[in-house]
Amino acid sequence: MEEKKVKSNPKALFPIALFLVLYLGNGVFFEYIKPQEGQMGFYVVSVVLAFSIALIAAFLQNRKLSFDEKIHICAKGIGDDNIVIMLFIFLMAGGFSGIASQAGGASSTANMLLNVIPGKYAVPGLFLISCLISMAMGTSVGTISVLAPIACAVSKNGGLPLELCVGVVVGGAMFGDNLSFISDTTIAATKTQGVEMKDKFFTNIRVALPSAVITFIMLIVYAVMKKGVDVGHFEFSFLQALPYFIVLIMSIIGINVFIVLITGIILFIGAGILTGSLTYATGLASMGSGMSGMFETMIVTILVASIASLMKENGGFEAILSLIRRKAKGKRGGSFGIMLLTAFMDVATANNTVAIVIAAPIAKDISKEYGVEPKKTASLLDTGSCIMQGIIPYGAQLLVAANIAGITSMSLIPFLIYPFILLAFVIVSIIREK
Question: What gap in Å lies between CA 355 and CA 360, rounded to an integer?
């Protein structure tokens, strides 16, 4: 069945503009103009509330459609196979993250690796560890929460710059978040484009790995120029760390993500019970809290799917495509359009998963029109959002890191080596497209 042609209508984009005013405007106000004590400015106004108001605005548009017809359009958007799969994976990933954290997997893995690395190379070691932990955990904020205190201890014990130690942890966390098979950004990017996670991984790694290697070499050079330091000894349990490595290997060889997550949960339950870090009660509670932590992301996904369906029906997507057609030429132009659209959405929302969910349906249309491979589109969505999320000073990653270290998020920006190198590699990769 041929899809009906929709006319370009810039007014259909009003709901997303309203969301940006509500969320970004209030975030800037409460973060920089009138800060709220003990609360991050961009978390004063709930993203769910802002999207709910935007959805109401979308329903008020296009009087040619009845309320029931608009409900049907939303239901079709929410009921898309990829959206449903994504929601289920979010739940499983939340359970895995909760049980892994409670079992002590992340801290044991980090401490084990840090003890293996010579003290002289503590800074490049922190970067390498954060890359591995984030790939295994699938969450940059979780990785930073675990490693930032360790980075502070390394800085203090070794007399190393605090901003550098914390900054390399943030960079490594964004590397892992971008590539992890169980990251919500990877799930969102692949499922919205209908591609396999392993295909997106191998497309992504062509720009992410060289960027990480160059960052690592720069940090090695820095370490060689400094004298040896004693960063101390950190306690760990190999049994608690082992499940992360198993999950990482299973993900890379392409085993179904549901099987990977279920296996990881079972392994962490076993490791936690054997080492005494888990009980029956704490195991259940941690999985429940991990799943609950995904509820906001799931609700946002449902709201955005509804808003996107209505905007597309009303001609909003066609308006964006018309603008890109005037500016972009060929596959390179389409790729740059996807990258810039995602980056802008992340700057506006300060949430890389939300940015992907918003940009994904438009990116899919750009991908079809300009001949950009779906796996490349998924890679650009994930990479573009992670680059910006790892740089903006009001994002959760930098705010959490700065709060733990007792410094300002702005002071970390000059030390965010990896995200800036990754940005350069992505631009070069697009320019080299045929």
Answer: 8
